[in-house]
Design goal:
The protein is mainly alpha-helical. Helices cover 73% and strands 0% of the residues. The protein has one domain: Up-down Bundle (Ferritin), CATH 1.20.1260. Helix 2 runs antiparallel to helix 3 and helix 5 (104-132) packs across helix 7. The two termini are 28 Å apart.
Length: 195
């Protein structure tokens, strides 16, 4: 059973150069993303309390994302920064959400698969950053851990979808989402942000 699929396009070197050239801005966005990821996992628990097969993993995922936020926050403080007061809208997330269906069951599937794609793209980008960071630095160790964790989360959300939907439907929809995600990521302005 395949729990995730390959991204349809790779992130660009231009994106990586932008992030590395404005790393403190990237860390601010990264902290925001970790807060939102933790909230997203718990929102599944709130919206679908009857989905008992996935609630333990959702809680565990929310806790892990909160730990990531704690660690990014510590890195921001270490570098002399502070958290932003407001979390700006993420154009990548906003565009991907428009692709979700609106009826209750299909929206449940779509949100799980979206979460998988968000985590898959995050893993790819954290790996790129990890490869570029200085050997032996605290940042390099941290981004290696993040890369592994995000890849695991990507698989978890596909596995959750397979608990409630036929495999054929899940993979068909995941393929469609992946194509849309590639189109969006290739057309977004380059900025020092995770997406």
């Amino acid at each position: 059973m395949q729990l995730s699929i390959e991204l349809k396009c790779e992130s660009s070197q231009e994106w990586l150069d932008c992030v590395m050239g404005d790393f403190d801005t990237f860390l601010q966005d990264h902290a925001d993303c970790e807060r939102k990821a933790s909230s997203m996992a718990m929102s599944f628990v709130a919206k679908y309390p009857d989905r008992k097969a996935i609630i333990p993993e959702l809680i565990e995922t929310a806790l892990e994302e909160l730990e990531h936020f704690r660690d990014v926050y510590a890195l921001i403080i270490k570098r002399g920064g502070n958290l932003q007061h407001n979390i700006p809208k993420d154009p990548y997330i906003e565009q991907m959400l428009k692709f979700c269906r609106s009826d209750v069951m299909n929206r449940f599937m779509d949100r799980l698969l979206l979460a998988s794609l968000f985590e898959t793209r995050g893993a790819e980008r954290f790996k790129m950053i990890w490869e570029r960071l200085e050997e032996g630095s605290d940042e390099k160790k941290f981004f290696h851990q993040l890369w592994a964790s995000e890849a695991k989360h990507a698989h978890i959300f596909v596995k959750m979808a397979l608990e409630y939907f036929p495999e054929k439907d899940v993979y068909h929809r995941l393929e469609a989402f992946s194509e849309e995600e590639a189109r969006i990521i290739q057309n977004l302005p380059i900025r020092a942000a995770l997406h």
